[in-house]
Amino acid sequence: MSRKYVFADECGNFDFSSKAGASRYFILVTVTVDTCSVGQQLLDLRRDLALQGFGLDREFHAAHDPKPMRDKVFATIATSPMRIDAVILEKSKAYPAVRVTDERFYKTAWYQHMKYVAPKIAVSTDDLLVVSASIGTNARKKAFHAAVTDVIRQVSPTAKARVASWSAASDPCLQVADYCAWAIQRKWEAGDRRGYDVIKGFVQTEFDLFASGTRKYY
Fold first, then answer.
1. 8 - beta bridge partners?
2. By C-alpha distance, which of 30, 67, 24 is closest to 195?
3. Residues 29/184, Cβ–Cβ less than 8 Å
4. For residue 39, is pLDDT > 80?
5. What is the arrangement of strands in the sheet containing 83-90, beginning at the earlier edge strand?
6. Which residues make Cβ contacts (< 8 Å) with residue 121, sequence separation at least 6?
7. In sequence order, which residues have a C-beta less than 8 Å from that of residue 5 and are 6 or more positions away?
8. Residue 8 to residues 33, 115, 126: CA-CA distances in angstroms?
9. Which CATH number goes with the domain that contains 80?
10. Under DSSP, is residue 160 helix (H, G, I), strand (E, B) or coil?
């Protein structure tokens, strides 16, 4: 028996339109580790950066961190063994029924992702902890947590699987997931591979869910 830890984050928004500010993709990324030592390394890095004079009054966040700090975080992540998986949903190709609510779309992404990934990362005797980054209002957090819990109940091969929904500030491993998700999003949305090329050796899957679709609904 061993423990498997899965930390997840998402990129993109739930704006299903072609308006400015609406992301083209919704991307769910999971980072799977056997230990959470990479989180301790990020805490150590944060202390080192504070001593170097970097102002840091919050958790690491790839989209907001200055590039010198971001480079140091990526360099730290690159030294730790992990498995990265992503499912990419081009939102304009999603059937209207799939996006009737944000929660339905979110659950679809999780199901399509974990039905493949879960059997790859754990066996029946493992303990599995899946931690998603909490987002939105309290009501939305509860709905999204319930969605992930139901998905894991359906697809986990383990006898013991638990789901948690925590703020990114509360666990540095969620900040690792944030960085990996940001790097993958930058590759897909903007063709920018700089962050992605640092972590690509850990990326096992990037599944474009609607790749075969030709119809766009907006």
1. 30, 132
2. 67
3. yes
4. yes
5. 160-166, 127-133, 3-11, 25-33, 83-90, 203-208
6. 4, 6, 32, 83, 128
7. 32, 33, 34, 35, 36, 129, 131, 173
8. 12, 15, 19
9. 3.30.420.10
10. strand
Structural domain count, the chain:
1
- pLDDT of 132 reads 97
pLDDT tens for each residue of 175-212: 999 999 999 999 999 999 999 999 999 999 999 999 99
What is the spatial distance between Cα 79 and Cα 76, in angstroms, rounded to a whole number? 6
Residues 25, 168, 164, 42, Cα dihedral to 10°: 110
107-140 pLDDT, tens digit each: 999 999 999 999 999 999 999 999 999 988 899 9
What band does 54 get if pLDDT is binned at 50, 70 and 90?
Answer: confident
Position 121 in a domain: yes
User: Where in the sequence is the domain holding 198, given as residue range(s)?
Assistant: 3-208
Assess if residue 98 is contained within a domain: yes
Angle between helix 102-121 and helix 138-155 axes, rounded to 10 deg: 40
- Residue 70: both structure tokens together: 């971001």
* Interval 139-156: pLDDT, tens: 999 999 999 999 999 999
Confidence at residue 136, expressed as pLDDT on a 0 to 100 scale: 82
Please report whether residue 217 resides in a domain.
Answer: no
In a domain, 160, yes or no: yes
